[in-house]
Amino acid sequence: GESVGLHLPTLSVQEGDNSIINCAYSNSASDYFIWYKQESGKGPQFIIDIRSNMDKRQGQRVTVLLNKTVKHLSLQIAATQPGDSAVYFCAENIGGNNRLAFGKGNQVVVIP
Amino acid sequence: EPEVTQTPSHQVTQMGQEVILRCVPISNHLYFYWYRQILGQKVEFLVSFYNNEISEKSEIFDDQFSVERPDGSNFTLKIRSTKLEDSAMYFCASGAGRGLDQPQHFGDGTRLSIL
């Protein structure tokens, strides 16, 4: 069936460097995508979202890029900090009732 | 910043017993959700709830599961007769709307352990 998935299980990044987390999706009908961050023992925390009619959206230190041609989503974190260490999930909105389909998650480890 | 709160943080229950997981969504939100995450796996949708009725449910949400909004602030998930495979983190989420640009906000979850 159609699903959302992540390419890399773990990303180690030096503090201060930029991080890029990738996500592939296969449901071409999805119209809304969200990135969540999950720290140990906590629930998914909203980071940034993007509609399917956009290519790029920027937040504070984060940028989401959407390439509908290849069904690819990425999250860029600028000047990565130790507090950015977490598991990052992409999720796509399926259907009118906002049912979210999550990918498996990508662990980011920031090296001080 | 308003947040979704869930209680208890950890629930240990004997197999076959009933369990109720509680959530207080963000106060002005109208859409409510339950998800679960089995250890090491991805977050899975269980059910969405709006206007005092279920909007959508997944294949996981069988007759053993029910949801209720007993008053103006709480949103509960009941598992009638728990099984070992119900052991997971259960997350409640709420959203202000159903359209785009209405992200769901999650609580920190209840860890359910079935013995």
Give a written overview of the molecule:
- The complex is a heterodimer of chains A (112) and B (115).
- Chain A has strands spanning 4-6, 10-14, 19-25, 32-38, 45-51, 56-58, 62-67, 72-77, 86-94, 99-102, 106-111.
- Chain A is mainly β and 112 residues long.
- In chain A, a hairpin with a 4-residue loop joins β7 (62-67) and β8.
- Chain B has 115 residues and is mostly beta strands.
- Classes of the chains: A mainly beta (112), B mainly beta (115).
- The interface between A and B is medium-sized, with 26 and 28 residues.
Percent strand of chain B: over 45%
Count of runs of 4 or more consecutive helical residues of chain A: 0
Roughly how many Å is the radius of gyration of chain B?
Answer: 13 Å
Distance between the amino and carboxyl termini of chain A: 40 Å
Poorly predicted runs of chain A are: none
Count of beta strands of chain A: 11
Structural class of chain A: mainly beta
Shape of chain B: globular
Give the topology string of chain B: H per helix, E per strand: EEEEEEEEEEE
Mean pLDDT of chain B: 93
**Mean pLDDT level of chain A:** 88
List low-pLDDT spans of chain B.
Answer: none
Helix content of chain A: under 10%
H/E series of chain A, N to C?
EEEEEEEEEEE
| Helix vs. strand class of chain B | mainly beta
Biggest chain contact: A-B, 26 and 28 residues
SSE layout and pairing:
The complex is a heterodimer of chains A (112) and B (115).
Chain A: E1 4-6, E2 10-14, E3 19-25, E4 32-38, E5 45-51, E6 56-58, E7 62-67, E8 72-77, E9 86-94, E10 99-102, E11 106-111
Parallel strand pairs in A: 2-11
Antiparallel strand pairs in A: 1-3, 3-8, 4-5, 4-9, 6-7, 7-8, 9-10, 9-11
Chain B: E1 5-7, E2 10-13, E3 19-24, E4 31-37, E5 44-50, E6 53-57, E7 65-68, E8 75-79, E9 88-95, E10 105-106, E11 110-114
